[in-house]
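[recover] target loaded
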């Protein structure tokens, strides 16, 4: 399904290349546990280059834009085969992005430095996670679009699409500090699979 009417002038549609800039903005403005993290970063595209752009560029069949009154207000990003996706990124995406920031002349903030350390030390998703939950998803909605029931509809749409494509399970990452998001996912049927120092990995099986 390429388009889903969510009501109240909200529309979920397949993303297109021109959505890259608004996706980067949404990622930045939700980067502080769902709130605007613009003040945390001097490299304004960095968080989006890591957490949003790869999906739009390399798994577009499961990349959706949330439009409210014609404005991109969020995104829904999914991957059917996580190991295969990560292999593609290591070959065709991360080297280019690493070079971009290696040559940047912008003074990095503390937040930037944390993200840059991650960017230059990208790790594969652990085998026990992808064995049980081979697919994964990522969702962000600007504060103006939160609390209106769109997130539940969007997640359920992605789960339906991934299951129809042959997935047996889906995982996601959520900040340890984002208790609201953790409770939201639990209500949708996700359970905590693994807890780390900064995040929880939650999953759901079909």
């Amino acid at each position: 399904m390429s388009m889903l009417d969510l009501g109240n002038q909200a529309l979920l549609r397949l993303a297109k290349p021109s959505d890259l800039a608004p996706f980067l903005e949404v990622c930045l403005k939700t980067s502080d546990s769902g709130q605007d993290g613009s003040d945390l970063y001097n490299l304004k595209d960095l968080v989006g280059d890591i957490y949003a752009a790869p999906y739009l560029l390399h798994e577009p069949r499961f990349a959706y834009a949330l439009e409210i009154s014609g404005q991109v207000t969020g995104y829904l990003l999914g991957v059917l085969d996580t190991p295969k996706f990560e292999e593609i990124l290591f070959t065709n995406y991360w080297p280019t992005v690493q070079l971009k920031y290696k040559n940047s002349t912008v003074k990095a903030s503390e937040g930037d430095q944390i993200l840059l350390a991650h960017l230059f030390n990208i790790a594969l998703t652990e085998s026990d996670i992808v064995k049980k939950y081979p697919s994964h998803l990522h969702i962000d909605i600007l504060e103006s679009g939160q609390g209106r029931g769109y997130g539940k509809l969007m997640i359920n749409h992605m789960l339906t699409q991934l299951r129809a494509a042959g997935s047996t399970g889906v995982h996601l990452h959520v900040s340890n500090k984002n208790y609201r998001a953790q409770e939201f996912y639990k209500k949708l049927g996700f359970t905590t699979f693994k807890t780390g120092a900064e995040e929880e990995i939650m999953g759901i099986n079909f």
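[recover] notes: The chain has a mean pLDDT of 95.
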